[in-house]
């Protein structure tokens, strides 16, 4: 059993996989871009995901898809804060998907309890201290390069070994900044500076990342490698996503980040019984 803590609560992992519902308040996310720009519509979608089984909602105001346009902090704050406030008022657990300390700070003030940082504290020098001071839970994700450059011919000698040593370093950085060990979760960053082959290899060897002693989050939902494998457009990747979610859970994933909450909660509950 591994415990992951955040202000006012915790997850105890080992038996039951947590489900994180994705809510992108952006015009350009690869899958749900433009769908939830209105705060009331966004809140409705979040409530629906919670009814369908989501344990928490990941609110993001900037797309990280390959080549995405950078968004100024003020704009990101304007997009997400009204949504975070609404959800927090309804006691819905919220993580904020951002790599900017100013945005994180605004989200924590609005009630977010977890930081989901795809740059693993490297995108903004103030981020580690900001997260430590707020006492929030932190998801640290591996990415090679930046969203602008990451898919330009990524190479590894051994992709899992490289992610593992990256995690070791970043755990040290986090502890040095004062983020407590039991508030950290790790994510290998499917699709972030990885080819299809790399993504599949990470999923096959996910167990090796368990040696670090922290819970593992995984985000495969509707991603390009599923589309390339099956020849499916983005909204037609639910079954493919289900296969990756089941495989990840059997190999030790503790939290899945997904768009199709109803379907993936079923996959998670069933796979939990099988492991
Ligand atoms: N993937 C995306 C964004 N944030 N965070 C974590 N921890 N792990 C992931 O795999 C991950 C993530 C990309 O997906 P999405 O949010 O659907 O799209 P976009 O970045 O275009 O908004």
Tell me about this structure:
- Strands 8-7-6-5-4-3-10-9 form an eight-stranded parallel sheet. Strands 1-2 form a two-stranded antiparallel sheet.
- With 275 residues, it is of the alpha/beta class.
- 40% of the residues lie in helices and 16% in strands.
- The chain contains nine helices and ten strands.
- It has helices at residues 39-51, 73-89, 101-110, 127-134, 159-177, 196-204, 224-230, 238-250, 261-274, and strands spanning 2-6, 9-13, 18-24, 56-60, 94-97, 114-117, 137-141, 184-187, 217-218, 255-258.
- The two termini are 14 Å apart.
- 6-hydroxymethylpterin-diphosphate (HH2) binds at residues 22, 24, 26, 29-31, 60, 63-65, 97, 116, 118, 139, 141, 187, 189-190, 217, 219, 257.
* Mean pLDDT figure: 96
Chemical compounds bound to the protein: 6-hydroxymethylpterin-diphosphate
What percent of residues adopt helix (DSSP H or I)?
A: 40-55%
Give the terminus-to-terminus CA distance.
Answer: 14 Å
Beta-strand residue fraction: 15-25%
Placed side by side, the strands forming the largest sheet appear as 8-7-6-5-4-3-10-9
- The radius of gyration over CA amounts to 17 Å
The parts where pLDDT drops under 50 for at least 5 residues are none
Tell me, briefly, the overall form: globular
Biggest pleated-sheet summary: 8 strands, parallel
SS summary, helix count: 9
Quick rundown:
This protein has 275 residues and is an alpha/beta fold. It is built from nine helices and ten strands. The strands form two sheets. The chain has an eight-stranded parallel β-sheet with strand order 8-7-6-5-4-3-10-9. The protein has a two-stranded antiparallel sheet with strand order 1-2.
């Amino acid at each position: 059993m591994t415990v992951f803590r955040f202000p006012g609560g915790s997850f105890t992992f080992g038996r039951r996989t947590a489900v994180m519902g994705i809510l992108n308040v952006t015009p350009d996310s690869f899958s749900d871009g433009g769908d939830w720009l209105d705060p009331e519509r966004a809140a409705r979608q979040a409530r629906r995901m919670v009814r369908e089984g989501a344990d928490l909602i990941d609110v993001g105001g900037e797309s990280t898809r390959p080549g995405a346009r950078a968004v100024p902090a003020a704009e990101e704050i304007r997009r997400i804060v009204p949504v975070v406030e609404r959800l927090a008022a309804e006691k819905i657990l919220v993580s904020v998907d951002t790599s900017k300390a100013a945005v994180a700070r605004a989200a924590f003030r609005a009630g977010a309890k977890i930081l989901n940082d795809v740059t693993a504290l490297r995108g903004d020098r103030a981020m580690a201290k900001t997260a430590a001071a707020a006492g929030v839970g932190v998801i640290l994700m591996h990415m090679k390069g930046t969203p602008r450059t990451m898919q330009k011919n990524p190479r590894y000698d051994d992709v899992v070994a490289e992610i593992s040593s990256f995690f070791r370093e970043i755990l040290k950085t986090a502890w040095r900044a004062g983020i407590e060990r039991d508030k950290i979760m790790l994510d290998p960053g499917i699709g972030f500076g990885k080819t299809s082959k790399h993504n599949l290899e990470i999923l096959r060897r996910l167990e090796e990342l368990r040696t670090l002693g922290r819970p593992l989050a995984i985000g495969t939902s509707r991603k390009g490698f599923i589309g390339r494998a099956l020849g499916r457009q983005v909204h037609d990747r639910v079954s493919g996503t289900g296969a990756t979610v089941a495989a990840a859970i059997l190999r030790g994933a503790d939290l899945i980040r997904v768009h199709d909450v109803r379907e993936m909660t079923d996959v998670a509950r069933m796979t939990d019984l099988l492991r």
